[in-house]
Amino acid sequence: MTSQPEKHRITHIAEALQAHGHRLTEPRQALIEVLVGSEQHLDHAEILARAQQRIPQLGRATVYRTLELLTGLGLIHATYLGDGRQRFCVPSGGHHHHLICNHCGTVTDLDHCLLDDGLERFAQQHDFTVESHLVELYGICHDCQKAA
What we know:
Helix content is 45%, strand content 19%.
């Protein structure tokens, strides 16, 4: 079941895609729904597998092209979380932050941004408008520190 906030995010991405002159095809709609509906950061294969549950004939090339398009438009973020696989997520509020443990690979999403004021000042100094940002902090999580 899709929640109201998820429906809003799906609609926002679909409308932005169309505003940039791209059609909202059934495969694109399915991929957007998979990304928005996931609480995890998914790689290409995971996205393909989940989307194929909706559209069994969906091909790998379509997934790669769509992810490249959505990333290029800034509608989703691509990231590497320490395991060498590119993963994708839908930023909330124009930004997305992670704490990534170098030992166990645990990824913790930060639900608020402590950088907004500083980034805004820096952007203004350079006459730049920030539309989104992604921050990844690598270190050692609490559990791995205790185990060492």
